[in-house]
Write a structure and sequence with these properties.
Blueprint lengths: L1 H11 L2 H31 L5 H26 L4 H18 L1 H16 L7 E4 L2 E8 L3 E6 L4 E5 H6 L2 E3 L5 E10 L5 H14 L10 E7 L4 E10 L3 H18 L21 E3 L9 H4 L4 E3 L3
Antiparallel strand pairs: 1-2, 1-5, 2-3, 3-4, 6-8, 7-8, 9-10
Helix pairs in contact: 2-3, 7-8
Length: about 300
């Protein structure tokens, strides 16, 4: 028993054991300090920086303090930091050659952070993906689509692609493409559309609605009618405005024509016409055989 106590006491008082205890304390203190400092710093700068910059600064601060604590712990354990730094440099070069895509994404992420085309919480469109920005990480950006799917977009793809930020500015414009019959009075159509915009509470008075004649179409006069709305009310305006325009044009007797084609023939040309009666649902097989009538007109 005395021998066991003496061995235990020698182990607890040995330099190696004490070095291990100090290394563990360094790691524990570094972890606690990193969390405390990063959270305090993010709260202090939350009012002066956006969510993207705050999150990035918090992560950099956390890992910087943690690395310093790890280096101190390794020194207490007797590791030669010169050898470790040399090995780390060789390993870094090897990893760099093996992970060129990751390095490209990392550098592209730095460009995105510096340029700031969007921030956390914005709604952006990249290619076929449209969604809210959840996070901007060193290698990729996470999006949540409107059908609640998570989309990961590599930073390199973002730098090379066209990005549309749908929530960058406080107001948005709704462009409606409308076609009316050729016999319609454009002044009357303009007054009808302006009245609809004025009666819709979601339409802004400034900027004013726009009435633009586009072209003489194949079957209709093509018009663009544009109205403005607050960003938060854009979808509501889009849903209500089209319905109100259709109802107002119908009430005024303004036709919205469908595509039409005209057929003409030279004098003396005979055009055969065959009229086929479609059998009603539920009739027998005999009713399906319908005789056609061929007529010719000079």
């Amino acid at each position: 028993m005395d021998e066991w106590l003496r061995s235990s006491l020698e182990l607890l008082t040995s330099e190696g054991f004490l070095a291990g205890v100090r290394a563990g304390l360094y790691l524990l203190a570094g972890l606690l300090l990193a969390r405390l400092v990063s959270r305090s710093l993010s709260r202090a700068l939350a009012a002066r920086m956006d969510a993207q910059q705050t999150m990035l600064l918090r992560r950099i601060t956390f890992y910087a303090i943690l690395i310093l604590a790890l280096v101190s712990a390794l020194r207490e354990l007797g590791f030669d930091m010169t050898v470790l730094l040399g090995a780390a440099g060789i390993l870094t070069v090897a990893i760099g050659f093996a992970s060129q895509t990751s390095a490209s994404n990392l550098i592209s992420g730095l460009f995105l952070i510096g340029e700031r085309p969007f921030a956390v919480g914005d709604v952006i469109k990249v290619g076929d993906a449209t969604g809210e920005v959840l996070s901007i990480d060193p290698l990729s950006v996470k999006l949540r689509t409107f059908d609640n799917l998570m989309v990961r977009v590599p930073n390199e793809s973002l730098v090379k692609s066209q990005i549309t930020n749908l929530t960058r500015f406080p107001i948005r414009r709704l462009d409606m493409q409308i076609g009316v019959a050729y016999r319609s009075d454009l002044n009357e159509v303009r007054d009808i559309l302006m009245a609809v915009a004025e009666s819709n509470p979601l339409c802004l008075e400034e900027p004013k609605p726009l009435f633009i004649f586009l072209e003489y179409g194949d079957s209709a006069l093509k018009i663009q009618f544009s109205v403005w709305a607050n960003r938060e009310k854009f979808l509501d305006l889009r849903n209500t405005m089209h319905q109100q325009v259709k109802e107002a044009l119908d009430a005024a007797g303004v036709e919205i024509p469908f595509p039409q084609r005209g057929l003409s023939a030279s004098p003396g040309v005979i055009l055969p016409v065959r009229v086929v009666d479609t059998p009603a649902a539920g009739e027998g097989d005999d009713a399906a055989d319908t005789a056609g009538t061929d007529t010719a007109r000079d």
